[in-house]
Amino acid sequence: xxxxxxxxxxxxxxxxxxxxxxxxxxxxxxxxxxxxxxxxxxxxxxxxxxxxxxxxxxxxxxxxxxxxxxxxxxxxxxxxxxxxxxxxxxxxxxxxxxxxxxxxxxxxxxxxxxxxxxxxxxxxxxxxxxxxxxxxxxxxxxxxxxxxxxxxxxxxxxxxxxxxxxxxxxxxxxxxxxxxxxxxxxxxxxxxxxxxxxxxxxxxxxxxxxxxxxxxxxxxxxxxxxxxxxxxxxxxxxxxxxxxxxxxxxxxxxxxxxxxxxxxxxxxxxxxxxxxxxxxxxxxxxxxxxxxxxxxxxxxxxxxxxxxxxxxxxxxxxxxxxxxxxxxxxxxxxxxxxxxxxxxxxxxxxxxxxxxxxxxxxxxxxxxxxxxxxxxxxxxxxxxxxxxxxxxxxxxxxxxx
Length: 401
Hints:
globular; mainly alpha
């Protein structure tokens, strides 16, 4: 019981699986689905909320990274071990894919005659290479006033990897310098800062894509996860932490869901009005509160409960294990499907639009899974083996404050 929320927790693989499942739903189903009757439009709108899966990733990342950092802050080679382990997990796949993209973007126009659309995509990719390689794509969206994801062919989803990397760069310094209680205070302050920063940007009518993608607008999700990790690292007993986490799960889910519901009711039919711009950033934070509650619930679910059965299921843990590769590859397929009107091709054999969407989306999921599994076992895992050279040596736990 001493290490109740430390080490590998199987249910968190399932939370990661939930996150990537939601992202697959929006990119490979909602974005492909044509408009139609009430049912089609309602289903398309519902699936579009799969975009919130990225926020689930952020909340989970904040919990895991903050916990790792706090548990190892007194150990030798703190910064070197953390950054090298992150390097070995993130960089090989990211930069490997970027190298292939650069090869195609610069080489393809030289090798073959391209149709105008493909040629434009290659030129767009050529122009953003520096931003991609420096993890600056989300700032490129802001500074160059990108208003449509299609302006970033095949790589628009990399904005979230930029957010993660920026968090990895500064958060270890904050954790290293502060005791636990002040650190919780800083995290709470960043939650509020992120929420009010988005509100100000919405009222200023700045680019919505930039508001969505900028790192300092996503601190609330990352820091809510971090707060959960820090609270259960006090000097109280493991039993106390379990009881606290169970209560936190209920309160976070209840309060967050209630606010989301009320905000939708109060702003119904008033999109882009001052009232909408007031409630939208609050609702976005409320969604993250719900996801923090889901995370807490997964952590304390009883072994034979439905919650534990869901998050610890083979399927959800499979998605979680290969979520990084799935995230990198799936959106490239989704962009190709949408930009090339692949659904119209499928409808030559499956006339019903919804059935054709489900077929094409399922094919995209299957291909994404295959690519992620092959990528992991052929390429990524060989770098992951090197993480053993950068493990923290046993030391006394940091004193709680």
